[in-house]
Amino acid sequence: MSETGLSTGDDGVIRCSWQQGLTDYALYHDEEWGRPVKDDTRLFEKICLEGFQSGLSWLTVLRKREAFRAAFCGFDFDKVAQFGEADIERCVTDKGIIRHRGKIVSTINNARRAIEMRDEFGSLARYFWSFEPKENERPLVFDYATLRANPITPASTRLSKDLKKRGWTFVGPTTIYAFMQAMGMVNDHIEGCHCRPRIETRRLEFSRP
């Protein structure tokens, strides 16, 4: 990974270097990462997958995402909340996903907490976006050294603590920061990446829930 956090692909496009020049990773970088999201199912999916990613690489999870979606009913949290022991055992033996019993049980628990959250706030999106960092919490230009050195922010710490109080699991501040980056609550495409201005425009046009 370059010191600047940027790399130029075979197509001549400058991107954040974490996508490693891999076709599927670059597509995720270009078409998903950092775009603002307010769909509850996608938000729930992402926070669960970030929990599965803990201790691993996101690329590993990304390449198993369709298998995860099949195993967890498309991350429909109303359905996942009904999972019982048979479903846990089914997931534990599913070679297509990460077979970590604790993270599987966590996903079911978090689905139940998601229902409670929706009942309280009207949507998961309304809750999560209320933790969007304020302008004075973020530098005007977010450089790679900052990103690498500080994968935890005051906003991700606040959100992590509140989720834990509500009974969510596998939601530490580093995991939550990755979730916020991916779901567009911050724009952490490196200055010089072709996506950064596009994401900034999307964030300006985005209607907060």
TrEMBL record:
InterPro entries named in the record: Adenine_glyco, DNA-3mA_glycosylase, DNA_glycosylase
A GO molecular function held by the record: metal ion binding
Gene3D superfamilies reported for this sequence: Hypothetical protein, domain 2
The name this protein goes by in its record: 3-methyladenine DNA glycosylase
Superkingdom per UniProt: Bacteria
Annotated keywords: Metal-binding, Zinc
Binding site for Zn(2+): 16, 29, 189, 193
